[in-house]
Every structure is written in C-alpha cells, then in structure tokens.
C-alpha cells in the first residue's frame, strides 16, 4: 500500500515529504482504530457466518503492553546514554568557562600594561609637547 502511494505522489507531483508523512500517520491511526475498535453486537437470532474483523480485548491489551514495553526500553536506553554523557558535557562547559576567564584576564592585563608604557611622562610625549607650543 505504501509503495503505490509513493508512485501516486510522484505522478501527481505532491509537494514535499510533509504531506506524505502526514498521510502515512493518518493511515496508521485509521488502521489502529480499525484493529482496536470493538466489534458491533449482532442480534441474538442471527448466527455468525464469518469471524469479526476486530481484535479481542486481550489481544488489544497485549498489543498496548508491547508498545509500552518498547517505549520504556527506548526511554531507558536514552536515559543511560544521557547519564553517561552528562559528565563530558559538564567538563567541556567548565573547560570553555575557564578558557574564557583566562582570556578575559589576559586581555585586561594587556590593557593595563599598555597604559603604563604610553604614560604622559615618557620622553616621546615631552618632545611632542615642546614642538607644539
């Protein structure tokens, strides 16, 4: 069913993947609702000739249990990865902070020492004052 939709969207020139993905999500939701929806009750006098297309409540519960287990497993793996990487992130942040502080202090020291070198009592500034007056 999905490959035919891809062909149809290529032929009709549907713009972007967003429409295709939203269509897929709608189809998956409709399929899930069709599978999980309760079967309509039949009258007492009519015998069943074909099995109903719905799923029993036990099968629906098992499906939802499997989905929740998969989500818990993925969440646990994500948490473990984050827990292992957090010290590295904190270390890099502290390193960049330390380098920034050293750089700021170095720039402040250079500005302070540059001010002392070009003081007005230097011989060069005295000579420039004599020529201008």
TrEMBL record:
The chain crosses the membrane at residues 58-82, 88-109. This is Uncharacterized protein. Residues 114-133 are annotated as: Disordered. Keywords: Membrane, Transmembrane, Transmembrane helix. It comes from Zizania palustris. PANTHER family: OS01G0923000 PROTEIN, TRANSMEMBRANE PROTEIN. Residues 116-133 have a biased composition (Polar residues).
